[in-house]
C-alpha cells in the first residue's frame, strides 16, 4: 500500500509541476557555481544544479575576439553569488530566462557593459517594450564603444 501511495503522490506532483510550468514562468533561487561562457551559467539549487542561459542576448563564441574577456566579466558579476532565475524555456540541456542578482537583470547588465549583442526581436518572444529597454542598453554601450563595440 505504501509503494502505491508513493507512486500516486509522485505522479500528482509531476502533473502539478507540468501544469504550473506551462501556465507561468518557473522561478528558482540558487547560487552560481560555474560560468560556461558569456551567457551561460550553472546554478545550484536545493534539489541539484542546472544550466541557465541568459535571455535575449548573444555573446562572443570561443572562436571570436573577446570570448575570454566576456566570460570573465560574467564570472566577476555572478560567480559564487545568490541569484534568481526566471525560466522562459526549460529543456534538459539548458533553460533560458531572466537571471537577476540583487534585482539587476544580468542580460541588461551585459548589454550595458558592451559584453553582449541583443538578439533581434523577430527571433525571440520578447515584448516590444521590453525589447526597447534592452535595445537602449545596447545602444548606450555601442555609442561609448564599450567592450565588443570597441573591436573592429
Strand content: 25-35%
Spans of at least 5 consecutive residues whose pLDDT stays below 50 are 1-23
Order of helices and strands: HEEEEHEEEHEH
N-C termini distance: 69 Å
**Overall mean confidence score, pLDDT:** 86
Q: Figure out the total of helices.
A: 4
Radius of gyration: 18 Å
C-alpha geometry: globular
Secondary-structure class: alpha+beta
Major sheet size, sense and barrel closure: 5 strands, mixed, barrel
The neighbouring-strand order within the major sheet is: 1-2-3-6-5
Helix content: 25-40%
Number of DSSP strand runs: 8
Task: Explain this structure.
This protein has 152 residues and is α+β, with helices and mostly antiparallel strands. The chain contains 4 helices and 8 strands, in the order H-E-E-E-E-H-E-E-E-H-E-H. Strands 1-2-3-6-5 form a 5-stranded mixed barrel. Strand 6 (95-101) and strand 7 (104-105) form a beta hairpin. It starts with a helix and ends in a 9-residue tail after the last helix.
Amino acid at each position: 500500500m505504501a509503494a502505491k501511495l508513493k507512486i500516486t503522490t509522485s505522479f500528482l506532483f509531476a502533473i502539478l509541476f507540468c501544469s504550473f510550468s506551462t501556465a507561468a514562468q518557473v522561478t528558482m533561487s540558487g547560487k552560481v557555481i560555474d560560468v560556461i561562457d558569456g551567457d551561460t551559467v550553472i546554478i545550484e539549487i536545493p534539489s541539484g544544479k542546472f544550466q541557465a542561459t541568459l535571455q535575449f542576448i548573444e555573446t562572443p563564441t570561443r572562436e571570436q575576439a573577446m570570448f575570454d574577456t566576456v566570460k570573465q566579466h560574467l564570472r566577476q558579476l555572478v560567480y559564487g553569488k545568490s541569484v534568481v532565475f526566471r525560466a522562459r524555456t526549460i529543456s534538459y540541456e539548458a533553460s533560458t530566462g531572466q537571471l537577476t542578482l540583487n534585482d539587476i537583470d544580468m542580460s541588461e547588465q551585459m548589454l550595458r557593459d558592451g559584453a553582449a549583442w541583443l538578439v533581434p526581436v523577430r527571433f525571440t518572444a520578447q515584448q516590444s517594450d521590453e525589447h526597447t529597454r534592452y535595445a537602449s542598453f545596447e545602444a548606450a554601450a555601442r555609442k561609448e564603444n564599450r567592450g565588443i563595440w570597441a573591436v573592429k
